[in-house]
Amino acid sequence: MPVNHGDEPKLLIPGLREFYDHMIPISWTIVRFGVGWVLLVHGYGKVMRGMAAQAKGLDASLPGFVNHNLEMAYLLTFVEGLGGLCILLGLFTRFFAAANAIEMGFLTFILYWGNGFSWLNRGYEYTLLWGFMCFAIALRGGGPYSLDRLIGREL
What we know:
Helix content: 55-70%
Order of helices and strands: HHHHHH
Largest sheet: none
Strand content: under 5%
Shape: elongated
Number of domains: 1
């Protein structure tokens, strides 16, 4: 696919144009890999803690959901763990990125909003950032170097 430079700003070092043109498709893979990796590690941590411990933590954080926190623990583990792996690989990318964006929206506005912005005070900074990243991936899809592209199908 040819690159249209008409709308882009001029480079301070024009000799880098070929490098940037080559790296643009790879850059999306790097973003997808980084987001998927972080989500996968969070999902793995939930598996290692166990669903009962995860549900107990949710009981303290989400008092209005006490009767459903075991189910919520399984859901969050599935969305972050398997979803993170799929985003990393670029498989069912849009579905799992959208699921994680919804999860991060829930965590941002229901769980952390009242604590303010800073994640140092259990605020919403971290979940808001990851929610936006997942939303962007859901809009863009897996990109040129993904299993979705390899199999020729995506949601």
